[in-house]
């Protein structure tokens, strides 16, 4: 089974678990008055229109997509330790009581994605049409944006695609790298981006590397 097939299978399992749990919550009365078109939501999930990838979300944040609201559904303590740029903290209990405008695009995320997927179901059940969740949660953000790695034997097409990812990674203070090969050690990729790190970039735990801490310090010096 290829990596892509494994990702698709994992997403289907995640979405299925989220729907089952959310339906149980609705049946228990946690979302009074909600009306759910399960068939429509199933079609949305099947088409992959319920989630966004880390690279897409990072691009939206960098480009300041109008109406974008990035929502961290973890606890306040976890949010305080580390969160995505521009994110607000709304645990699931608060999420169900929050009103969203029709012109807003809401992207939820959690540690691995399960709680965010459940939150997505609650929002859609409550009538929020432009709701998504970060497919792989913070894990995907870390591996794809903060510390993306290009295989040493990558094809020219993969190298070209990685150049864009490297630019976005550096915009957020990340450290894109090329994996070590038998003949050469790993080294950071070159970036052609002149963009500055996003304003409001949150701190990361100290053990996760110095690149983001440097970006945070520079943002603070600019008064961002």
Describe what this molecule looks like in 3D.
- By secondary structure, the chain is α/β, with parallel strands linked by helices.
- The strands form two sheets. Strands 1-5-4-2-3 form a five-stranded parallel beta sheet.
- The chain has nine helices and eight strands.
- Helix 1 (3-27) packs across helix 6.
- The chain is globular and about 55 Å long.
Features:
single chain; 224 residues; alpha/beta; Oxidized Rhodanese, domain 1; 2 domains; 5-stranded parallel beta sheet; 3-stranded mixed beta sheet; 9 helices; disordered N terminus; disordered C terminus
Which secondary structure elements does this structure contain, and how are they paired or packed?
Blueprint (H helix, E strand, L loop, with lengths): L2 H25 L10 H9 L4 E2 L1 H9 L5 E5 L3 H6 L6 E2 L2 H4 L9 E5 L4 H12 L5 E4 L2 H10 L2 E2 L5 H16 L5 E2 L8 E2 L22 H11 L3
Parallel strand pairs: 1-5, 2-3, 2-4, 4-5, 6-7
Antiparallel strand pairs: 7-8
Helix pairs in contact: 1-6
Strand content: 5-15%
Strand elements, count: 8
Biggest β-sheet: strands ordered side by side in the sheet: 1-5-4-2-3
Low-confidence stretches: 1-6, 8-12, 18-33, 186-224
User: What's the level 1 CATH class of the largest domain?
Assistant: Alpha Beta
Classified in CATH, the superfamily of the largest domain is: Rhodanese-like domain
End-to-end gap: 45 Å
Oligomer: single chain
Largest sheet report = 5 strands, parallel
What's the overall average pLDDT, rounded? 76
**What count of domains describes the coordinates?**
2
The CATH topology label of the largest domain is: Oxidized Rhodanese, domain 1
Topology as a string of helices (H) and strands (E): HHEHEHEHEHEHEHEEH
Structural class given helices, strands, pairing? alpha/beta
Count of alpha and pi helical runs:
9
Shape: globular
CATH architecture of the largest domain: 3-Layer(aba) Sandwich
Using the CA coordinates, give the radius of gyration. Answer: 19 Å
